[in-house]
Amino acid sequence: MKLEKDTTILHYKILSEIGKGGMGEVWLAQDGCVRSPRVSTGFRNKNGALRFNSLTV
Q: Are 11 and 31 contacting, i.e. CB atoms less than 8 angstroms apart?
């Protein structure tokens, strides 16, 4: 699956790509389940597995 701006995965909306390298890709995403201002970083490893971490802004 190609990730692009405005793609939604579960309750995360992709905002932009932060970077990529040998370990995978890192994305900035907005968590749609949280009412307070937060963003999430999403990491996709070289095998394609996705993991998101929500951060308070």
A: yes
